[in-house]
Specification:
Helices cover about 45% and strands about 10% of the residues. It is built from nine helices and seven strands. It has a three-stranded mixed beta sheet, sandwiched between helices. A two-stranded antiparallel ribbon has the order 2-3.
């Protein structure tokens, strides 16, 4: 038997462990393929749970069947609401002041929160108050997406942490909107918006009712990013406007909540 990654022969011990040799590169390939298989199986299992719940919703609302509602499966966030830790406030204050200072010095250091690469690449570089640019050049007024995102309760917001995705691009945009606002005035505007309580383990601005930061002060990522399932729904909505959407929120392979939206 040969290693399926590099083709070298396998000894009896390697055969017992699987079809890979002991080379680091081959073991890395094995681990990656195992992860991808587990991820695919979990995704399929989650989709089956969402579809079953979707069919149950339609059985309760048979009038919707003729309109062929769109199933939008999301991963939700259900963190406890707790007082914002002082260490989190201080960390955000330091980050904010550093970003403003770097922006004034002509720096270009973007946020580097692990796991946010897809958020940065999916978000536009400039925010719009009405219709963000998203994948496929599909535009959708924000109110149409607000109910969907509210049903999720901010799964993507959890990565904001003590930085809230605020970077030099955001500060440059805000300063261009209010050129007469001093740096200390800008700091005060952000710090005054901090909520007393937020979702535990999530963004410092992630309050019980959603984002506590006024939209004009939010990062470009927060204003422009939509997760892949929502972007796919945008495309579908453009092709079939007026079709209801059934939002099914899963966590740990169970449905935590759902909502049918008919007029968005």
């Amino acid at each position: 038997m040969q290693c399926i990654a590099c083709g070298c022969g396998l000894n009896v011990h390697q055969r017992a462990r699987g079809r890979y040799c002991d080379r680091f590169e081959c073991r890395s390939i094995a681990a990656k393929r195992w992860y991808e298989k587990q991820h695919a199986e979990a995704k399929a299992a989650g989709a089956a749970v969402a579809r079953a719940h979707f069919q149950a919703l339609l059985s309760q609302r048979p009038e919707l069947r003729a309109r062929a509602p769109y199933l939008l499966q999301l991963t939700g966030l259900d963190s406890a609401i707790e007082p914002v830790p002082e260490v989190l406030r201080q960390s955000f204050s330091r980050h904010l002041r550093q970003v403003i200072a770097d922006c004034a010095a002509g720096g270009n250091v973007m946020f580097d929160v692990p796991g946010t690469e897809d958020l940065e690449s999916s978000a536009g570089t400039a925010s719009s108050a009405d219709a963000p640019a998203i994948a496929g050049q599909v535009d959708l007024p924000r109110p149409s997406a607000a109910g969907v995102c509210a049903t999720c309760r901010g799964y993507c917001c959890r990565l904001g942490g003590s930085r809230a995705f605020i970077d030099q691009r955001t500060i440059a945009r805000v300063q261009s909107q209010w050129p007469d606002l001093s740096e200390e005035g800008l700091v005060a505007a952000y710090l005054d918006a901090l909520p007393a309580r937020h979702a535990a383990g999530s963004c410092v601005y992630h309050g019980a009712g959603g984002c506590a930061l006024p939209r004009d002060l939010r990062s470009n990522v927060c204003n422009d990013y939509f997760c892949e399932p929502v972007r796919e729904w945008f495309v579908h909505r453009r092709q079939r406007p007026g079709v209801p959407v059934a939002v099914v929120v899963l966590q740990d392979m169970g449905v935590t909540r759902s909502a049918v939206m008919e007029h968005i």
